[in-house]
Design brief:
By secondary structure, this protein is mainly alpha-helical. It has one domain (24-163). Helix content is 68%, strand content 0%. It has seven helices and no strands. It has helices spanning 2-29, 38-51, 65-77, 86-96, 100-104, 115-122, 131-163. Helix 1 (2-29) runs antiparallel to helix 7. The longest helix is centred in the last third of the chain and has 33 residues, at 131-163. It starts with a helix and ends with a helix. Residues 31-37 have low confidence and may be disordered.
């Protein structure tokens, strides 16, 4: 039963990463896409910072897939330059302490979402990136998706070997 839940979680993560890769590639291909000013993202980051003043994670007191989603979005644009926002920076430092595999294993966030979790869905981070940053993020997302596939294959092999 636990193996089936872990497998389903990994399958969901692979699906999420695939969707992220598709969105990034679509943004990369859209030559007419307008880029927003850095000051726009600063306003959004300030708002996130204020939200993190009273919680440790996006959905409250434990990490979820929404934390992974925000972490991935912020890595596209911030390059660890979050010192201006102390609460957001605290969260980011904490998230960096997890490996990519651990972040992918966080449980899926469940509705009803917190207001902070809802903000994550509204962030339009891809509008803030340069072509080089977007190319890099596509490569990272593809690598992450491949890592998820390998982990899933490893888990399936372990289950098969165990049941034989």
């Amino acid at each position: 039963m636990a193996d089936e839940i872990a497998k389903q979680t990994l399958l969901n993560r692979v699906k999420e990463q695939g969707e992220a890769v598709r969105r990034l590639k679509a943004a990369q291909a859209d030559k007419t896409q307008g880029y927003r000013e850095q000051s726009d993202i600063n306003v959004e980051l300030e708002s996130l910072n204020n939200d993190f003043a009273n919680v440790s994670y996006v959905c409250g007191w434990w990490p979820t897939s929404k934390d992974t989603e925000l972490f991935d979005k912020l890595n596209v644009i911030c390059n660890d330059e979050l010192a201006r926002w102390p609460y957001l920076n605290r969260w980011h430092v904490n998230m960096k302490s997890f490996t990519q595999e651990e972040r992918l294993a966080f449980p899926l966030a469940e509705a009803p979402f917190t207001s902070l979790a809802e903000k994550i869905d509204l962030l339009k981070i891809t509008l803030y990136v340069t072509k080089d940053m977007l190319d890099k993020k596509v490569r990272q997302s593809v690598a992450c998706k491949q890592s998820c596939h390998k982990l899933l294959q490893h888990c399936e092999k372990q289950v098969f070997d165990f049941s034989s």
